[in-house]
């Protein structure tokens, strides 16, 4: 079993002191709209790698490249644009802590801000993610599948909102069918004191809203998931 601490959208100050964290997480997942130093603190505190995707309130991360000599943008040296040591999974599949994680950040376009996409743009991004996942070396052993689909926004009609900024993406449904993740982990939709239900999407996938935080154990071999602890935003 891999123990995961998933966070999104709202800072839970007690977590930065280790209060509320059960055991030692093997992995930190950031589903967007969080200060990067918060993710750095959690990763350092738990001594666990951090995989994240950007939300619509995060800074622009496109155009950065990491080479042998460090980070560059437009060919010029620069600093790591994200949380120090974090792994940006936006638009690609990574294998960390024994889990295959495919990521798509951002929200529906509503005011032209950063990390916002139209339906067509996000559909194209999802197709590129599927193609890259299928062609990756580690996909051969997993038949192109993945363990966790990490997004900022939910799928359309599965725990999303009615207002334009919080509507989910239709393209996530075929993406789930193609990747067959055990979990779709997202943020973006604030529950405001309520407890959103984990919802089925596709035949074998559960959509999980982790605004605030959720700690869970996942077995990639059996697809079993046990919720350890969760706290949704106020």
From TrEMBL:
Query: For the Calcineurin-like phosphoesterase domain, which residue ranges apply?
Result: 21-192
Return any one Pfam family short name: Metallophos
What InterPro entries does the entry give?
Answer: Calcineurin-like_PHP, Metallo-depent_PP-like
* Gene Ontology MF: a single term: hydrolase activity
How is this protein named in the record?
Answer: Calcineurin-like phosphoesterase domain-containing protein
Q: State the organism of origin.
A: Gordonia alkanivorans NBRC 16433
Give the organism's phylogenetic lineage. Bacteria, Bacillati, Actinomycetota, Actinomycetes, Mycobacteriales
